[in-house]
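#structure-requests
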Amino acid sequence: MDKIKNKYKGRENVEKILIDSAAELLGTIGPSRLSIRDIAEHAGVNHAQIHHYFGGKQGLLEATYKQLAFTHMQQIERRNISAMDLGEEPLSELTDNYFNALIRAVLDGQMDLLTIQQDSGLSVAKKTLNELAKLRGASKPSAEEKAAIALVTVMEFGLAASKPYITQALKISDKEMKVFMKLFIEGRSLGLNRLKRKSNAKINTANRTVQCSNIFTAQCGNNSH
């Protein structure tokens, strides 16, 4: 018999504490090994509530990944981060648990949990790709645009997964970490900066073409007199 008594009353409160607990545990345990009882015990809620409110473990996992993606998207928007300006801080450190939970899902082979954010319109990578294509006046992103966003994603995932390790293994001090983070921010934007240069070059070429055309038109007008 389950002796755990609920500390929280009301559907909204119970759902929130269960999602919060699942989010915290997913970053360390992963979706495959995480059990209903692990989550319920961490939340201080009877495990039957998970079945009652979410229909079981899968329903809770889906709700949790969706909430993590929503919270991360909120932080992106609050900081006015865009395809052309990623800001000066790691995207993987804007919120707790999000990137670690994604990494665990990938390692566990549960890609279905990752598609939830895409289906819900909460994928930052997909949103950024659409922004890039729109800036170019295209309906679909190019291979180079996908590569630029892939580079950002890989570096952010790598940072989230390995920062504790490199800090300990390389004995990186706080001062040295600032040097590393500056290099990380520069490297993260290599692909996007290349796209900016190409875009600016096209704009400059178009402007020169217009200027030459105007000069030619003016000269023709003078000659006609």
